[in-house]
Amino acid sequence: MSPARVGVLLADSASAPGFRSGRRLHRVSERNGMQGLRDPLLIVSAASTLPTVAVVAGDANRQHRLKGLLIRQDVGTGLIAPMLDRAGIRFWRSVLVHQGPPVPARVLGAWEMGAENELIAEASVTGGVLFVLSCALERLEVPVRRIPALARMRTEDVTALEVSADGSYVHWPRGDVHLDLGSLRCVVDPDWRARTDAVRVGHHERFGEAVRAVREAHGLRQNGVQGVSARHVRRVEGGFFPKVATLRLLARAHGMQLDRYLTEIAEAARSER
């Protein structure tokens, strides 16, 4: 099923210079206000032009259709709040203040793909806490000490992070650490982690069943894989996901290259389902 369409009120072309209406996002005009608009709404504005979108933003917010107000900071930081107040906008939950095109490009790209809940708009580390904002403008706060790969790094290295162009992960170059939004949610949300683990277990079990099916189809015994013990083959077939080195040994035992072996496993998994 296609994602629901979302209107984009582009009051600041400098924030999203290459924006075009697409499969999911379509451009709307502030002149029409909210009249006839039933879709969720993203508003892209500069701080100095907030008064021109105030009426539409307020209407959309009251109707619970405002999904994001992206504000380019073209005035001093201390003037953002007065500009919002001048525009009659007194809510912050859906507000994202940014410096220029990379952030709104990530947000709009994520919404166009229907992946706003999976991709990252921006991230920073302050006071030992990793602050992350999703492209749906969901805010996460993750103590650095709860992420082992970051807890081992120096403070100056932890703060030196970058978000990938499409928002798929946060990268720490000095530690070569990559974290996506799902892995960060697992740290702060036990329920999310439980759901994720359940999906992973189900996938691994199907993978193991497919490994067994391919092995049996080729007439191999569990103790017939050179370099892999029968016990470890049983673990893999029972749902333990193997390392690439183990997969190469399994492929060799079947007389295949790794890519062909994985193709047969994928075909077997589809047959099993």
Give your account of this protein's structure.
The longest helix is centred in the C-terminal third of the chain and has 28 residues. With 273 residues, this protein is an alpha/beta fold. Helix 2 links the parallel strand 4 and strand 5. The protein contains ten helices and eleven strands. The chain folds into three domains: 108 residues, 3-Layer(aba) Sandwich (Rossmann fold), CATH 3.40.50; 69 residues, NE0471 N-terminal domain-like (2-Layer Sandwich), CATH 3.30.2020.40; 82 residues, lambda repressor-like DNA-binding domains (434 Repressor (Amino-terminal Domain), Orthogonal Bundle), CATH 1.10.260.40. The two termini are 22 Å apart. The strands form three sheets. A five-stranded parallel beta sheet has the order 2-1-3-4-5, with helices on both faces. Strands 6-7-8 form a three-stranded antiparallel beta sheet. Strands 9-10-11 form a three-stranded antiparallel beta sheet.
